[in-house]
Amino acid sequence: MESKELALNICGILSSKKAKDITMIDVNHMTIIADYFVLASATSTTAVKALAQELEFQMGEKYNRNPLRMEGIQEGRWIAIDFGEVIVHIFYEETRKFYQLERLWTDGENVTVYQD
Question: Considering the entire predicted model, what is its pTM?
């Protein structure tokens, strides 16, 4: 599975579970740590945790892909899930506004706002 296809599948899973403001950023030309970042938000820390757990479950079941690393699951304000070529950031809405990760990693042409 190519990294873009993997990122789109992740976006689809997050969208099916009502994640908000799903954004895919192509960072391939900016860093060696991943090809894509997928960002999503939820309105509570409980929802952030639920999205992360469901994504982990569905990626394992559907695509036989387990995260290499997962950080932030206990607090649920910003959970980072590393699938290798795609790193997923699931934020509590206020935390996303504070860090503005999109602003750090976009060059104006590498952002895709995911819509079903």
Answer: 0.93
